[in-house]
Amino acid sequence: MKTYIFGPDDVDTLLDTPSVVDAVEQAFAAYHRGDAKMPPKSYIDLPQYNGDFRAMPAYVGGTDDGDEDADTGDGASVKWVNSHPDNPEKHDLPSVMGVAVYSDPETAFPLAVMDGTTLTRYRTGAVSGVATRYLAPPDARTFGVVGAGAQAYTQVEAVTSVAGIERVVVADVDEDAIERFVEYHDDASFEVVGGSTREAAGCDIVSTLTPSREPVVRREWVKDGAHLNAMGADAEGKQELDLDILKDARVVVDDREQCVHSGEINVAVSRGEFSEEDIYATLGEIVTGEKTVASRGDDITVFDSTGLAIQDVAAARLVNRRGREKGVGMPFELVGT
User: Fold this and answer.
1) Position 337 in a domain
2) What is the CA radius of gyration of the chain?
3) What is the pLDDT of residue 67?
4) Under a CB-based contact definition with an 8 Å cutoff, are residues 24 and 314 in contact?
């Protein structure tokens, strides 16, 4: 049996955002039902290099990715990913790189090795799509993006795939990044404009995508009834939202333990200003219908995303299946049999 290798172009060719949104939604449902296993992320801190490694393993039971020809098999993967902020300047390398290994749970055979960076971009955008599908006001027409880096592009793809967005406002400290973002969406079916953080935060739906350790979005900028995807806080000490936003919101998390430790709520929890009991629901509880925000009224909703390994399994499964079906990727002998 051959192992397939999928580079970044292969992953980009094989994945489309709507399918990944559906696959990630089903992975969260499986996780909530107990049909998934996901140990905590394992970190190796390397202060001498101003960086770290993270290992993210998971298993997800049978899921359906939304395609008519989809199988319902289970899958397992581990992603080895880093964060080295000095890489671009010192080594001409990305600050974040990842490799994912996707395996057959029955035999443990490594079915695929693939670019984890592109995989992460898709699955991270997709989870915002899932949260927006369930938590955003149904009449939302404007979308604010705070942070115009690579992840902003898939945020727009995902959110506009599930909501009737007519106008996107993007904010960033880098004016060139805003200009590139606006130019990239020149032919989009919705208007894309640059603006201030306050203007972006005032939209019906907002995604925050910064590495900030201080709040960048204030409560008075956020309209009642808005939905926020808090995506930037993925490590202890990071924070993007004003505490008053959390206090006024129904907070939905991807994983309780992980968010308390390293999500948007982690700083407020560490200071005793927010507790695990203040969490309204997990995303798994929402997508399975165990909890609902159907009668949200003017309540703000916040989705606190730290990024889960079950999302990697969902996306990697799509890459492996579609790549083999379409003849994309390179088969090679990795394991002696």
Assistant:
1) no
2) 19
3) 45
4) yes
Residues 188 and 143 in one domain: yes
pLDDT digits (tens, 9 = 90+) for 121-177: 999 999 999 999 999 999 999 999 999 988 999 999 999 999 999 999 999 999 999
| Cβ contact 251:326 at 8 Å | no
Confidence category of residue 336, pLDDT binned at 50, 70, 90: confident
Distance CA 303, CA 298 (A): 16
| CA separation for the pair 304, 297 (Å, rounded) | 20
Q: Is 57 contained in some domain?
A: yes
Domain with 133 in it: 128-304
Q: Which two tokens stand for residue 168?
A: 């996107």
d(CA 73, CA 41): 24
Residue 291 and residue 143 in one domain: yes
Two tokens, residue 109: 């055979």
Pair 285, 167 in one domain: yes
Instruction: Determine the Cα–Cα distance for residues 328 and 326; give it in Å rounded to an integer.
Output: 5
The fraction of the chain above a pLDDT of 70, given in percent, is: 96
Tokens of 28: 């969260």
294 and 316 part of one domain: no
Residue 100 vs residues 7, 140, 153, 267: alpha-carbon distances, Å: 11, 35, 22, 30
d(CA 307, CA 185): 26
Percent of the chain predicted with pLDDT > 90: 87
Active-site residue flag, 41: no
Q: One of 2, 37, 79, 223 is an active-site residue; which one?
A: 79
Q: Report pLDDT for 71.
A: 45
Mean pLDDT of the chain: 93
Q: What is the mean pLDDT of residues 107-119?
A: 96
What is the SS3 assignment for 263? coil
First to last CA, the chain: 8
- Residue 234, C-beta contacts closer than 8 angstroms, at least 6 positions apart: 262, 263, 306, 307
